[in-house]
From TrEMBL:
This is Ent-kaurenoic acid oxidase. Keywords: Heme, Iron, Membrane, Metal-binding, Monooxygenase, Oxidoreductase, Signal, Transmembrane, Transmembrane helix. Its main location: membrane. Heme binds at C436. It comes from Panicum hallii var. hallii.
Length: 491
C-alpha cells in the first residue's frame, strides 16, 4: 500500500499536470483564431484558467499588500519583455509596463480606442469620455476643458478652495482624532460640487457624496450584478446619483424656460448651454455622465494625494522644512493689498510641485489604464497586439521600475529637480489626447491644502504602521486616523 508521502506526491503531480492542460487549452481557445503567424508574434504570457484568467493573481497581489508582485510574477516567469499576454476582466489582454510601449499606445489614436472594463463603463457612464470615439471625445473636451482647467476658471476656483481648506484645518485642529482621509475627501468633494452645482444645498451634497462613495468602490470590480458583490452596490448608487443630478438638471431647465436670472454660472449651466460648431447641444444623459466622470477625476485623486503628501512630509523632516521655507517666502512676498494666495503664487511653488509629483509617482493612485486595439498593431520590438484585444497600461510598473527611477521605493522629491520626465515615464494623469481632464485643478487643490498645512499644522497618526489597502486606491485601512494640531498651540 502506498504511503501518505507517495500519495501526496502523486496528487501534487496531478494538480500540476491538470493546471498545465487547462491553461494550454484555454490559451488555444482564445488564440486559435489568430492563426500561426500572428500567434507567433504575441508577447510572452499565458491565459490562465477560463473565466478567472489572471484576475485572482491580480486581486491577491493588491489585497495582500504587495501590488508590485503582480507584474513581478510575469517578469519572473517570462523575463523583462515589458509586454505580456493574459486574460483579464473577461478579455484577452496585453499588459504593457515599459515607458516606450506605454507612450506608443497612448499616443496612437488610430490604433487604439478606450477599453475600460464593463464595470467602469457601466458606473461612470457610456456617454462620458471613457468610451467615445476620437472625434466625439475631442468635441466634449473642447466644450468642457476651459471651465475646468483654464486660467480664468482656476483663478475663480482658487479663492473658494483657499477658504474651504483654511476653515477645514481650523475645524480639524479642534476636533481631536479624525479620519484624515475621510475628511479630506469631504473637502475635495465640496470643492468639486461647488464647481459643478454652485447652488447645491447640504442635503444634495450629502446625497451626492454617499452615492458617489458607494459607486467608487465598484469601479475596479468585476461586473457581477448580484447582491453581495461590490458592483451590485455601486450600480444601485449610480442610479441614486443619476436621480439627484437629473433633478438638478430639471430645475435648471425649468428656470431657463421661465427666464429666471442666474446668479452664478457653474459647470452644469455651461454644459446645458454648450454648443459645437454645428449648433448641437448635449442631451441630459451626456451631461450626467460627464458630471459623474468629473466627480471621479476631480476629487478622488486630490484627496488621496493630499493625504499621502502630508504623511510623507511629516515622516521626512528635512523635506518638510524645505517645503515650508518655500511657502513662507511666498507669503512674505504677497502684497499687503492682496487677500490670500493667487494663481501667480501657486506657480511659484516649485519645490512643492516636486513633492506632489513624487507623491503621484510613489503612490500610483491611477495604477493602470485601459485601451482596445482597433487594428493589429506592432509594439515594442515587433510584439503583436491583435485587433479587438484589450490593452492594460501598467503605470505602476513604469513608476516603480528601478531602470526608470533609481531606488524607486524611496520618497525623494529632489529627483525632480532640473529634470523633465521623458514621455511615457511619468503617467499619473495619462498621456496624449486622453490626458486626465482635471489634472491642473487637482494639482491646484493639493498645493493649496499643503500650503496651509505646512505653514501652521502638524499631523500625528494614531496607527503609523497601519496596513495599506490598494483597491480601488492606496489608502490606510483606518483612513489615516490622526490628530491635526495647530503648531502655534504647542508653542
Amino acid at each position: 500500500m502506498a504511503g501518505p508521502g507517495l500519495l501526496a506526491a502523486v496528487a501534487a503531480v496531478l494538480v500540476v499536470a491538470i493546471d498545465a492542460v487547462v491553461r494550454r487549452a484555454h490559451g488555444w481557445a482564445r488564440e486559435a483564431s489568430l492563426g500561426a503567424g500572428r500567434r507567433a508574434r504575441l508577447p510572452p504570457g499565458d491565459m490562465g484558467w477560463p473565466v478567472v484568467g489572471a484576475m485572482w493573481a491580480f486581486l491577491w497581489a493588491f489585497k495582500s499588500g504587495d501590488p508590485d508582485s503582480f507584474i513581478g510574477s510575469f517578469i519572473r516567469r517570462f523575463g523583462r519583455a515589458g509586454m505580456y499576454r493574459a486574460f483579464m476582466f473577461s478579455s484577452p489582454t496585453i499588459l504593457v509596463a515599459t515607458p516606450d510601449a506605454c507612450k506608443r499606445v497612448l499616443m496612437d489614436d488610430d490604433g487604439f480606442a478606450e477599453g475600460w472594463p464593463k464595470a467602469t463603463v457601466a458606473l461612470i457612464g457610456s456617454k462620458s469620455f471613457l468610451t467615445l470615439p476620437c472625434e466625439e471625445h475631442r468635441r466634449l473636451r473642447k466644450l468642457t476643458a476651459a471651465p475646468i482647467n483654464g486660467s480664468d476658471a482656476l483663478s475663480t476656483y482658487l479663492g473658494f478652495i483657499d477658504r474651504t481648506v483654511a476653515e477645514a484645518l481650523r475645524r480639524w485642529s479642534d476636533a481631536g482624532e479624525i479620519e484624515f482621509l475621510t475628511e479630506l475627501r469631504r473637502v475635495t468633494f465640496q470643492v468639486i460640487v461647488q464647481i459643478f452645482l454652485t447652488s447645491a444645498d447640504d442635503a444634495t451634497m450629502r446625497a451626492l457624496e454617499r452615492s458617489y462613495t458607494d459607486l467608487n468602490y465598484g469601479i475596479r470590480a468585476m461586473a457581477i450584478n448580484l447582491p453581495g458583490f461590490a458592483f451590485h452596490k455601486a450600480f444601485k448608487a449610480r442610479k441614486k446619483l443619476v436621480s439627484v443630478l437629473q433633478g438638478a438638471l430639471n430645475e435648471r431647465r425649468v428656470a431657463t424656460t421661465k427666464g429666471l436670472p442666474k446668479s452664478n454660472m457653474d459647470m452644469m449651466d455651461r454644459l446645458i448651454e454648450a454648443e459645437d460648431e454645428h449648433g448641437r447641444r448635449l442631451d441630459d444623459e451626456e451631461i450626467i455622465d460627464i458630471l459623474i466622470m468629473y466627480l471621479n477625476a476631480g476629487h478622488e485623486s486630490s484627496a488621496h494625494i493630499s493625504m499621502w503628501a502630508t504623511v510623507f512630509l511629516q515622516e521626512n523632516p528635512e523635506i518638510f522644512a524645505k517645503a515650508k521655507a518655500e511657502q513662507e517666502e511666498i507669503i512674505q512676498n504677497i502684497p499687503p493689498t492682496q487677500k490670500g494666495i493667487s494663481l501667480r503664487d501657486f506657480r511659484k511653488m516649485e519645490y512643492l510641485s516636486q513633492v506632489i509629483d513624487e507623491t503621484l509617482r510613489f503612490v500610483n493612485i491611477s495604477f493602470v489604464s485601459f485601451r482596445e486595439a482597433k487594428k493589429d498593431v506592432s509594439v515594442n520590438a515587433g510584439y503583436l497586439i491583435p485587433k479587438g484585444w484589450k490593452v492594460q497600461l501598467w503605470y505602476r510598473g513604469v513608476h516603480m521600475d528601478p531602470e526608470v527611477y533609481p531606488d524607486p521605493k524611496k520618497f525623494n522629491p529632489s529627483r525632480w529637480e532640473d529634470y523633465s520626465a521623458r514621455a511615457g515615464t511619468f503617467l499619473p494623469f495619462g498621456l496624449g489626447t486622453r490626458l486626465c481632464p482635471g489634472n491642473d485643478l487637482a494639482k491646484l487643490e493639493i498645493s493649496i491644502f499643503l500650503h496651509h498645512f505646512l505653514l501652521g499644522y502638524k499631523l500625528t497618526r494614531t496607527n503609523p504602521s497601519c496596513r495599506i489597502r490598494y483597491l480601488p486606491h492606496p489608502r490606510p485601512v483606518d483612513n489615516c486616523l490622526a490628530k491635526i494640531t495647530k503648531v502655534s498651540d504647542e508653542q
